[in-house]
């Protein structure tokens, strides 16, 4: 499988994350799977002239490639011309290159939430008219249009995340190389289900605090981050706490709230990331599949049954009371 990778409107953080893959040496893993990188702006050793020849030969059909990966959002401005982002040395807007190459690719992959949905680059007033490959935020469309399908029969495969977990990228490419990724393996936003069928909440080390609604009140506290500090782990599709980053970490493990970076529109929650907005004391953002009345009732019951150990540990920066056998009467 021949892979062509372009970077558009973004920070390059997904590439940096990918280099930290837990599969072992990344390039050896790709080679073992028969995946050849035709060109990548950060990895390839080709000179500027050689790089342009590679891209032009892929675009006009002289060079075969199978998968087009796009990292970063697509900048359509000003006024739809795409001139805010011209591919150096070509005089042609990046969006023209992407459209042409996407029409020739067997599969197209959006690497990161910027390429999938617009992401950070599309936040605020969005002066560059940034969007994703096949989505503009939550709205189908984007650069290629809602009806776009590749020659391989799939829509754009959206490996969302800001940045993506390195293994999400590697596993997706391995599945494509083995022709084992079909429409049924993608969720309603065309994200690979092997990581979006889970929630960040699953496997969170703070789940005991969540169950008893023993909440952290300030940064550094050990308690659940949902009630006061903005955590959206119960609303974010990703396996971050089941598949630790760099072998043993996640945002919540590091003491920072989940911001739902795999979801469209995460970049503009309407409130500071580290604050939980509430109405009548009830968080606005509740677990995805839990009715509000149930949550309120269960939260009240849980708080009334919270062990003293859990309540006290929640408001400290380290565990001060450990589980012990109940005392015999």
What does the model show?
This protein is α/β, with parallel strands linked by helices and 329 residues long. It has two domains: 2-196, NADH:ubiquinone oxidoreductase-like, 20kDa subunit (Rossmann fold, 3-Layer(aba) Sandwich); 200-317, Cytochrome-c3 Hydrogenase, Chain A, domain 2. Helices cover 26% and strands 11% of the residues. Strands 2-1-3-5-9 form a five-stranded parallel sheet, sandwiched between helices. Strands 4-6 form a two-stranded antiparallel sheet. It has a two-stranded antiparallel sheet with strand order 7-8. Strand 7 (135-136) and strand 8 (139-140) form a beta hairpin. The protein is elongated, with a radius of gyration of 22 Å. The protein starts with a strand and ends in a 15-residue tail after the last helix.
Provide key terms for this protein.
single chain, alpha/beta, Rossmann fold, 2 domains, two-stranded antiparallel sheet
Computed structural class: alpha/beta
The string of secondary-structure elements, in order, is EHHEHEEHEHEEEEHHHHEEHH
Number of helical regions: 11
Across the major sheet, the strand order is 2-1-3-5-9
End-to-end separation in angstroms reads: 68 Å
Counting DSSP E segments of at least 2 residues, the number of strands comes to 11
Which sheet architecture does the biggest sheet show? 5 strands, parallel
Give the integer mean of the pLDDT values: 93
Shape descriptor: elongated
